[in-house]
Structures are given as C-alpha cells and as structure tokens.
Amino acid sequence: MPDTAAQPDPRQALRQLIRLRRKHLSQAQQQAAAQQLVARFKEHAGILAARRIALYLTNDGELDPLPAIHWLWARQQEVYLPVLHPGAPGQLLFQRYTATSPMTRNRFGIPEPELDMQQVIPHGALDIICTPLVAFDAAGNRLGMGGGYYDRTLADWHEHRLGPRPLGIAHDCQQVDAVPKEQWDVPLPQIITPTRCWDFA
Q: How far is CA 32 from the centre of its chain?
C-alpha cells in the first residue's frame, strides 16, 4: 500500500529547531545580545537617519530590542510597535510606542499597545520596519512564525521597492544553511545580529 502519511513540513520543523536553539540562550547571553544590538544600531546609517522606526517586543526568545528602544527614545526618534488589525485578519497596524503607552497582550500572547487610532500611522509613513524572525540564511531569506503578517506588510517593498525599508533582527544562532522558500516570502535587504550587519541588497 502507498504511504499516505502526511509529509513533514520542513519549514515547521526548522521553526521548532531554531526556536528551541534560541530559547536555550541564557539570560546573561540574551542581555549581552540586547546591548550588542544597541551597538549595531549606533553604527547603522539608516537607523541614525530615521525619524520613525517600527520595532517589536520580545515574546519567544527573540533578540530583545528594548535597550535599543530606550536609546532611540533618548535620541528623540519615534518608535512604533505592530498591533493586530481588529478588522482585517492577517494585517498589522503600527502604533506609536512611548514609555507611558498602555499595554495589552494580543491573541498570540504578544505584548502590544492598547489600540488608539490617533497613535496609528500608515506603515508607508515609517522609515524602517525592524522585523523579528525565526531563521535566516546567507541570501537574506527570512523564516517567520508562519502567519505571514510581515510578508503582507512588506509586499510593496518586495515588488516595487516602495515603503519603509525592512531590517531583520536575529540572534547569530538563528542563521541556517538555507531557508525553505515560498513565493510569498519577502527576502530582507539587511539583517542585524549581535555580531554583524548582513547586507544582501
């Protein structure tokens, strides 16, 4: 009889592997990586020139950008966080984030600002969107969590080089030999890790 068992999804297997690798980082390693990210930001021309930068808050062992957010605030740069769109499933809104922003957790358990449409801007008004990721390879291919939120947000960049420039953020241990690609995946022009800035474009 033919084997009718479902074939394993290589992308999901890779997600599980790299998320586990990331979660095994110690608290001291995570803190050191977060400070190294600030150092990378301080030498990144695009970050230094940007007025409005979208970041994220860590939830699953991602490289923690909070020290970098505090550094951006000190420079009077505006920081925005993704918020799940309440009326358009699969879409993100970007809302201004300050030290006094009321916070909540979305349906994935990820912290986000309580929705205030007066603090939301069109994503095209951002200068840079810093994207979390699960895995990446030396060609700039990014593997996310599988929801496609950032791929949809960055579609105009991918197809026409319009809109804010994407910048991936990851631990060095998240690099893999090759990310299995799908047609909707948006490769990144740059990825920052604690030890280097990868330039792909």
A: 19
Give the global pTM.
0.92
Res 158: pLDDT: 74
Sheet bearing 120-121, strands edge to edge = 120-121, 92-97, 78-84, 52-54, 128-132, 165-169, 190-192, 197-199
Contacts 24+ apart (CB under 8 A), 118-122: 119/95, 120/83, 120/93, 120/94, 120/95, 120/96, 121/52, 121/80, 121/94, 121/95, 121/96
In 3D space, the residue among 152, 161, 176 whose CA is nearest the CA of residue 88 turns out to be 152
pLDDT tens track for 131-151 = 999 999 999 899 988 888 998
